[in-house]
Amino acid sequence: MFILKPLTVRPIAMLVTGQLSAAVAAELYRVALIWIAVELAGAAGGYIVAAHSGTILAVTLISGVWADQWNPRRIMITVNLLRAGIVLLLPLSTFAGGAIPTWLFWSVALAMAAMTAFMDPALQTCLPRLMPSLAMLPATNGLVDGARRLARILGPGMIGALAAFIPVAQFFSVVSLLLLCAAAATYAIGPVLIEPPPGLPTGWGRRIGNAIVSGWRATRPHRLLRFALPALLITTASWCTAFTLGLALLVREQPGADAQLYGLAVAAYGVGNVVANVIVSSLNLRRSGLVMYLGRLVLGSGFIGMALAPSPLWLMAGAAFAAMGGPMNELPVLVRIQTDIPPPLVASVFRLRMMIDHGGILLGLLIAPGLMSLIGTVPVVAGAGLATVLVGIVGLWMFGGDVAPEPSY
Question: Which CATH number fits domain 5-399: 1.10.10.60, 1.20.1250.20, 1.10.230.10, 3.40.50.150?
Answer without folding.
Answer: 1.20.1250.20
